[in-house]
Amino acid sequence: MGIGAACARRLAELGAKVAILDRDAAHAEATAAEIIEEGDSAQRYVCNVDDVASVEYAIRCVVEELGRVDVLVNNAGVFPSMAALELSEAMWDRVLDVNLKGAFFCAQLAARRMVQQGTGGSIVNIASVDAMHPTGGLAHYDASKGGLVMLTRSLARELAPHRIRVNAVAPGAIETPGASGILGDPAVRAEFAAKIPLRRMGVPDDIARAVAYLATDASDYVTGSTLVVDGGYLVG
Ligand SMILES: NC(=O)c1ccc[n+]([C@@H]2O[C@H](COP(=O)([O-])OP(=O)(O)OC[C@H]3O[C@@H](n4cnc5c(N)ncnc54)[C@H](O)[C@@H]3O)[C@@H](O)[C@H]2O)c1
């Protein structure tokens, strides 16, 4: 749902055969059905990205059914707020496992397939402005996204000889079901909006259009970069 669904819709519209991997079958099914209704192509797979065996199985199914992997968008992420002084080990592990370990093993397994295919590829990691500027109450999340930005750079360097490009998009405040808890509070919302020079919250398609640029040949000389899409929040 949210940003991931918008990316799936945008890439399908550009002609990709989209495979939606989500731990929640209903979310994946709803997005796939919407894309098919538009006349584009989508398949859905239940997959928990923090479980490497689950990712391995899902990618094997994608390759069997769709034939190849050219683009990976690492979008799955969780962002439960908790003060650093209260943070439990379990919460730390959950956030790092999904946001950072999950992204690494999805990238590794997709990249192995891309290397076998021998025609390059593009990996796009969904980071956050929190990788550069902490919001507060999200030390675990900020660490995971900071790690994801550096992981993007490391993989870009190692995978370049295989013509696999690796980039990140760092969204600002985007209206999604997952963010509705934080942004649903009118006071927090007003505070956020006041800090955004373009004076509006982002919508999922703002991120999807950046992902489409990084996924396709329009960006074929771009690797290791992080594209900030935040309405100017970081410079506000
Ligand atoms: N919404 C924002 O303001 C915002 C800002 C910066 C970065 N981001 C990042 O963008 C990404 C998407 O955020 P969103 O707001 O669309 O979230 P969301 O909660 O609306 O949707 C997240 C989707 O990921 C799936 N998911 C969660 N954990 C998973 C797992 N372990 N395995 C497989 N699927 C899993 C969920 O089922 C859901 O479909 C996240 O990585 C988030 O950190 C969001």
Molecular structure report:
By secondary structure, the protein is of the alpha/beta class. It is built from eight helices and six strands. It has helices spanning 2-13, 25-37, 52-66, 89-117, 139-159, 180-183, 186-194, 204-215, and strands at 17-22, 41-46, 71-74, 121-126, 164-171, 226-229. The strands form two sheets. The protein has a four-stranded parallel sheet, sandwiched between helices. The longest helix has 29 residues, at 89-117. Bound molecules: nicotinamide-adenine-dinucleotide. Nicotinamide-adenine-dinucleotide (NAD) is lined by residues 1-4, 22-24, 27, 47-50, 75-79, 98, 102, 126, 128, 171, 173-174, 176-179.
Low-confidence stretches: none
Distance between the termini: 29 Å
Number of strands: 6
What's the CATH first level? Alpha Beta
Q: Structurally, how many domains make up the residues? A: 1
Could you give a short account of the major beta sheet? 4 strands, parallel
How large a portion of the residues is in β-strands, by DSSP E?
5-15%
Q: Mean of residue pLDDT? A: 97
The helix tally amounts to: 8
* C-alpha geometry: globular
In short:
The chain has helices spanning 2-13, 25-37, 52-66, 89-117, 139-159, 180-183, 186-194, 204-215; strands at 17-22, 41-46, 71-74, 121-126, 164-171, 226-229. The protein is an alpha/beta fold and 236 residues long. Strand 4, helix 5 and strand 5 (164-171) form a beta-alpha-beta unit.
Task: Spell out the blueprint of helices and strands.
Blueprint: H1 2-13, E1 17-22, H2 25-37, E2 41-46, H3 52-66, E3 71-74, H4 89-117, E4 121-126, H5 139-159, E5 164-171, H6 180-183, H7 186-194, H8 204-215, E6 226-229
Parallel strand pairs: 1-2, 3-4, 4-5, 5-6
